[in-house]
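tl;dr need the bound structure. longer version: we got a ligand (DQA) that a collaborator sent over and nobodys looked at where it sits. i said id run it. heres the input, straight from their email, havent touched it
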Amino acid sequence: MAKKSNQSKTLPIYILNGPNLNLLGQREPEVYGYTTLPQIEKMCAEQAAAHGLSIVFRQSNREGEIVDHLQEARTSGAAVIINPAGYGHTSIAILDSIQMLKIPVIEVHLSNIHRREPYRNHSYVSKGATGIIMGLGAQGYLRAIDAVAENLKVKK
Ligand code: DQA
């Protein structure tokens, strides 16, 4: 029987995006850049494939739906990369869902939230994250995939 490739053995990386990120490219581009979310999804799929990995890419404007996606990742994902957007600053429910995970979780923000308004300086998600990448724009997602790939390689 043909040997299975690593790609078919490893579960996908769940890349989850919070509210208003569907409008990237149009939304305050001076802060968040001109790259759209579909473009980020394509870049992420290519970066993951270069590591022999696959992705599930989601965006939701609803807190409960993000909780559902995190619960799905609990059993179906190898790792989570999450840009919680505005919910990072408010949501204990999203933190609770992250704290149930036994897989790596990388928090990503396009902007550096520590250089911005005081109400953006704190993220509940950071308490549950394995690592955090911020301020690198869309490139941050790719660096998060590199970090996850390294982490999964170490564990093999
Ligand atoms: C963001 C930063 C948040 O403060 C903001 O609410 C967002 C995007 C970022 O990617 O820089 O929606 O998470």
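gonna send this back to them w/ a short note. DSSP finds six helices and five strands in the chain.
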